[in-house]
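Quarterly update from the structural biology core.
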Amino acid sequence: MRYLAGSFSAIFLAMAALTQPAVAADSFVVKDIRIEGLQRVEPGTVFSYLPVQVGERFTPEKAADSIKALYATGFFRDVQIQAQGDVLIVIVDERPTISRIEFTGMKEFDPEVVRKSLRSVGVADARFYDKALIDKAEQELKRQYVSKGLFAAEVVTTVTPGARNQVAIFFNIDEGPVAKIKEINFIGNKVFSESTLRSQMQLQTGGWLSWYSKDNLYSKQKLTADLETIRSYYLNRGYLEFVIESTQVSITPDKRDIYLTISIREGNKFTVKNISLAGELLGKEKEFQSLLTIKAGDTFSSAKMAESTKAIAEKLGSYGYA
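Predicted structure, tokenized:
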């Protein structure tokens, strides 16, 4: 039996050592192709990925291409190419398939929703086990817990081998306590006080009703919404140049307390100098002007601008103009 190629990692060393005469000596016309080691993958699948067919000349270069092509499918842990006379032998070792996926200790999320998300990235029952994908899934679960304020959450994945080259995946979770907001600080605010800005937020440092409202429990989604609320608060009061420069979320070593620091730049306050309407006004400019909730001399407000635009659009619609 001639040995043309071993594992994927060794093939490049073998190719580098070959001289041109050796390539010619090892090449042959394939009379038959035999596949060994298959358990679930169909032979036709392997044949479809092989860059050589019966009747074609097989060379060490095609051995390398064959191994790379079969590894790229993700179906196999090991691929070997051998030759016995004029018969090409492809020996494969299939990856295990996933028999089931279980979650223990998961309370914050619906396991079925998580299962569906995992399926969309290739981690599901009957799919081939891929350690890299499982590791990514574990890290993503940890990130999702952090976004919910569960900074102390631990996710440990266990892979248990079973019969018929199958594995069971267990995500073992200790969610831990939700981190509570200890302080919310603003940097750069001059026009409005910290207490005024904090009062616009859903997230709070806690009070006697926090046991019910849970407003002192950190949530990335709530923080994002709060930042947009603060931005709107400034824009509706004339501060068109307002910018949130940075947001820092600091957590204590025991992962129980959070300190929020929001750095802002207020900019200048703007007033409306003049308002003019342009476009197809249907000879009804005065009527449209009366719909404006913002006037010359008013402090600029993005909310009033939006209200005025909507009112004019609806009026145009009543006249048959979209």
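Confidence is low (pLDDT under 50) at residues 1-25.
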